[in-house]
Amino acid sequence: MSLLNTAKHLLRTRRCFPKKRLGQNFMIDEDLLRLMVSYASLNKNDVVLEIGPGLGFLTRLISQKCKQVIAVEVDPRLTTILRTELEDLDNVTLVEGDVLKVPLLDFNKVVSNPPFYVSSPILFWLLERNLDCAVLTFQKEFARRLVAVVGSKEYGRLTVMIYYRADVELLDHVSKDLYYPSPEVDSYIVRLRPRLPPFAVEDEQAFSQVVRTLFTQRNKKVRNAIVPYLARLGTRREKIKEIADSLLYHDKRVRKLAPEDFGALTNEIRRLAESKRRLSSMVND
Q1: What is the DSSP letter of 253?
Q2: Strand, helix or coil at 50?
Q3: Is 52 part of a structural domain of the chain?
Q4: Per the structure, how many domains does the chain have?
Q5: Using an 8 Å Cβ cutoff, are 61 and 37 in contact?
Q6: Fewest CB atoms within 10 A around its CB: which of 25, 61, 134, 187?
Q7: What confidence score (pLDDT) does residue 104 get?
């Protein structure tokens, strides 16, 4: 029986109808599922996280190649199906709940078709973990933003922040017709390999805030787009323009800044703020 027919049979007999709000689109191409598993280069020492196992098609393939699978499913209706469908697999641990909230055992790899609507929070959550690699599917537009070229329409905060934390590869285009039910757009298989940052940032929280602030005005020059951030630092109104005009890359458009430029700019602002605090302390003393 094809995976499409199996999916329809399981959902019909269990009276479990896919919920659009939960992003329930099940991949039904076995060759593609096997390809995802191969991209993770699994071995018998790997503990693999699968986010949103759905009907267990990918789970079963992963389990054949690794030590253990941790499958996290938020929908209790699907968890009920999975308990039956995967009961013969001793190396699968099924967890019911939100992957961002439930306690989990340690894992070193991820192979998953996560719901598209949680792509961004899941991605940033994964990059905080100690991972060897992650193979995931993302909507086409989201995936392209991960590897966008500086200055392009897709280039933005997501590009910069992911570049800072990981190497990203777009591996295969996936037609929406290879899911049941079909989503509205195509997707990509993406492989991420977390790594050390390729440039130095003295304050990662400030770096994130600067990138976020600047990309809200991506077409403006840095001297104008940075004003809200300087104001939040407590810079006096009469000094903001002077400082903004003195910064690195002040005359460049935000969308033209490379990721490394955002790091250098953040470091400069941080040093200016620290100098201001020291001067203020000396005056008060």
Answers
A1: B
A2: strand
A3: yes
A4: 2
A5: yes
A6: 61
A7: 95
* Neighbour-count burial of 97, counting CB atoms closer than 10 A to its CB (0-12 exposed, 13-18 middle, 19+ buried): middle
For residue 194, list its beta bridge partners. 166
Please tell me whether residues 214 and 251 are part of one structural domain: yes
Q: Tell me how far apart the alpha carbons of residues 194 and 41 are, in angstroms, rounded to a whole number.
A: 15
- Rounded distance between C-alpha atoms, residue 164 and residue 266, angstroms: 13
- CB neighbourhood size of 190 (10 A): 22
Which tokens belong to 257?
């800044």
Q: State which amino acid sits at residue 273.
A: A
Checking 198-204 for CB contacts under 8 A at 24+ apart, the result is: 198/163, 198/164, 198/259, 198/260, 199/164, 199/259, 199/260, 199/263, 199/264, 200/263, 200/267, 201/164, 201/263, 201/266, 201/267, 202/266, 202/267, 202/270, 202/271, 203/266, 203/267, 203/270
Average pLDDT of span 15-42: 94
d(Cα 41, Cα 65) in Å, to the nearest integer? 9
pLDDT per position as a tens digit, 89-117: 999 999 999 999 999 999 999 999 999 99
Range of the structural domain that residue 234 is part of: 204-284
How far apart are alpha carbons 230 and 122 in whole angstroms? 30
Q: Please say which residue of 151, 172, 194 terminates a domain.
A: 194
Q: Are residues 165 and 234 in the same domain?
A: no
pLDDT at residue 204 in the model: 95
* Ranges of H-type helices in 153-248: 157-165, 204-215, 222-225, 227-232, 237-246
This prediction has a pTM of: 0.91
